[in-house]
Write a structure and sequence with these properties.
7 helices; four-stranded mixed sheet; 11% strand; alpha+beta
Length: 144
Amino acid sequence: MAREKEAEAAPELSYREQLGHLNPIAQPLASRKLTRKLYKCIRKAAKHKQIRRGVKEVQKFINKGEKGIAVLAGDTLPIDVYCHIPIMCEDRNLPYAYVPSKSDLGAAAGSKRPTCVILIKPHEEYQEAYDECLEEVEALPLPL
């Protein structure tokens, strides 16, 4: 009971406030608008069971050659937990982007637990939203 009250009392951080908690490797960072589109696409994908969630699962399926958009949380610490995922994505030409909050990423996937990595798989049910996100994520500049 007390936890629920604390959760309700904790104000939601705005996009600008979440940017203050980013780690140094969070590039390319999705804009506020793209972040919302990605969360929406993740919600649709989760409804159809078309997401991979968590570092171990995402890593395993990237190695197997699965295609999709990798969405990483920019406020994950320590960064050693998932700093190899962007390199794996670049090696396999998978688009990836960072969003500011791991708790929002977990919530978009329909979980109460924060998540640091999600792989959105393409599916005909939400193909239009997926294609729009894919186009915008691929347009983001890659870090040097």
